[in-house]
Design a protein that fits this description.
Chain lengths: 126, 269
C-alpha cells in the first residue's frame, strides 16, 4: 500500500466487491455503514489511508507491504490500525511496514531493520 | 452520354474564392490561420488531382497487383497519420506497427467482405469498387484507432495511480486497465455512432450526395450509403478493439505490471 493510494471509482462502495465484508472491517477503523456512498474526492487524507488499508486487507493477502500507513492519522486511528494489523499478523499475515516512528516499530514488529542512507544500519529481533 | 453536370476549372476557381475570403477574414481578425488554410486548400487540390489521375490509371488497368499496391500505400499513409495524432506514442516499431496493422486487418477484412457478399463486382477486386470502398472504411478506421490509442495512452498516464492500485490488489492487467480500455473504445467509436445518428437528419453523406449528383436514383444511393455506414461501423469497431487491446498488451506485461516506460518521450511542441 503506497503512501498516496490510487482510486479507480468515485465512491467508497465501488471499491469493494463485497460491501458487507468490507463494512465489518471499516467499522473497526471508524467508518459508519453509510460510508458506502461517500465520494472519494471528499475524504480526508487520513480517511483515504484507512480506506486503502481495508481495501488491501479485504482481498485476503498473504503478505502486505505498507508504506507509512499511519503517517496522516490521529492517535485514535493509529491505535485502531495497529490493533487491526496486529490481529492479522497473529492470524498469519506477513507484513513489511515502513515507518519513521520508532515507538510504533517497537509495538508492532517482531523484527526491525533500521535503514539509513539506503543501507541496513541495525537489525533488532524482538 | 453523361447524366451529370460536368464542372469546368473556372467553376472550381470560383469556389476557391470562398477559401480566399476565409483567409482574408483570418488576416482581418488576426487569427494567423490564413497561411495554414491556404496550404491545406492547395494540398487538398493537388492530392485530389493526383489521386484522380492514379484512379483513372488503376480503373483502366484492373490489375490485382496494382490494386493491391494502391491499397498498401493507402494503409501506410493512414498508419503515418495515426502515429502523428498521438500525444504520447508507443516506443519503437509498435508506434507505427500497431495502428497500421490493426487498420490493415480490419479495413481489408471488411472491404473484402463487402466486395464478396454485397457488391460482387467482376472481378471481385475491381478497383472501381474496391479502392473507393476501402478509402471510406480506412478513413473512418484511422480516426477511430487514432482516438482510441490516444485516449488509452493519455488515460493510463493520468490514471496511473488507480491502475497501479488495482494491480497491487491482485487484479490482472486486463481487469486493472478495464475502465481505461472502455473509455478508449468509447472515444474510438463515438464519431461513428454520432455520424450514424446524424446521417439523413443533420448531414447528407458525401458518397450518397455524389451518387445523387451523378444521376443515381436517391433510393439506390441511400442503399449504398447504408451499406457503407455499416461497413464503416464494423471496420472501425474491429480496428479500434484490436488496437486498444494491443495497446494494453504492450503497456503492461506478463507479470501484470504497468509498463509506461514503453511510451516514447513526449513530442517537442
Amino acid at each position: 500500500m503506497p503512501a498516496e493510494p490510487g482510486w479507480w471509482a468515485e465512491t467508497v462502495g465501488e471499491h469493494f466487491g463485497d460491501w458487507t465484508a468490507a463494512a465489518a472491517v471499516l467499522t473497526k477503523l471508524g467508518f459508519p455503514e453509510e460510508a458506502k456512498s461517500w465520494p472519494i474526492a471528499r475524504l480526508s487524507t487520513g480517511e483515504r489511508l484507512r480506506l486503502a488499508l481495508v481495501r488491501a486487507l479485504i482481498v485476503g493477502p498473504k503478505a502486505l507491504l505498507l508504506d507509512e500507513p499511519t503517517a496522516a492519522l490521529d492517535l485514535a486511528s493509529v491505535e485502531a490500525v495497529e490493533s487491526l494489523i496486529a490481529d492479522r499478523i497473529w492470524a498469519g499475515l506477513a507484513v513489511l511496514w515502513v515507518t519513521h516512528d520508532a515507538g510504533q516499530a517497537g509495538r508492532i514488529a517482531r523484527r526491525q531493520l533500521v535503514v539509513e542512507a539506503g543501507s541496513v544500519r541495525e537489525e533488532i529481533d524482538q | 452520354m453523361t447524366s451529370y453536370i460536368t464542372l469546368s476549372y473556372v467553376d472550381l476557381a470560383l469556389a476557391s474564392v470562398l477559401v480566399l475570403i476565409n483567409a482574408g477574414l483570418s488576416l482581418i481578425f488576426g487569427l494567423k490561420i490564413h497561411r495554414s488554410l491556404l496550404i491545406a486548400a492547395i494540398r487538398m487540390a493537388v492530392q485530389l488531382t493526383l489521386i484522380g489521375l492514379v484512379l483513372t490509371a488503376l480503373f483502366s488497368l484492373v490489375s490485382p497487383l496494382w490494386t493491391g499496391l494502391a491499397v498498401f500505400a493507402m494503409i501506410l499513409f493512414a498508419g503515418q497519420e495515426v502515429m502523428q495524432r498521438q500525444d504520447r506514442r508507443l516506443s519503437g516499431w509498435w508506434c507505427f506497427g500497431l495502428g497500421t496493422g490493426c487498420m490493415m486487418m480490419s479495413s481489408v477484412l471488411v472491404t473484402v467482405f463487402a466486395l464478396l457478399t454485397a457488391i460482387r463486382p467482376s472481378p471481385w477486386y475491381d478497383p472501381r469498387y474496391s479502392i473507393p470502398l476501402l478509402g471510406m472504411i480506412l478513413g473512418n478506421c484511422m480516426t477511430g484507432i487514432a482516438l482510441g490509442l490516444n485516449t488509452l495512452t493519455t488515460s493510463l498516464m493520468l490514471r496511473r495511480a488507480a491502475v497501479e492500485a488495482r494491480l497491487m490488489l491482485g487484479a490482472t492487467r486486463w481487469d486493472a486497465a478495464g475502465p481505461v480500455t472502455r473509455d478508449a473504445l468509447r472515444s474510438a467509436l463515438m464519431p461513428t455512432i454520432n455520424s450514424m445518428s446524424a446521417t439523413g437528419l443533420v448531414s447528407l453523406p458525401g458518397m450518397m450526395t455524389g451518387q445523387i449528383l451523378s444521376g443515381v436514383p436517391p433510393v439506390e444511393a441511400v442503399k449504398y450509403q447504408i451499406l457503407v455506414m455499416f461497413l464503416i461501423a464494423g471496420g472501425t469497431g474491429f480496428g479500434a478493439v484490436a488496437a486498444v487491446l494491443g495497446g494494453v498488451y504492450r503497456l503492461t506485461d506478463a507479470r501484470h505490471r504497468l509498463r509506461l516506460d514503453r511510451l516514447a518521450a513526449p513530442q517537442a511542441t
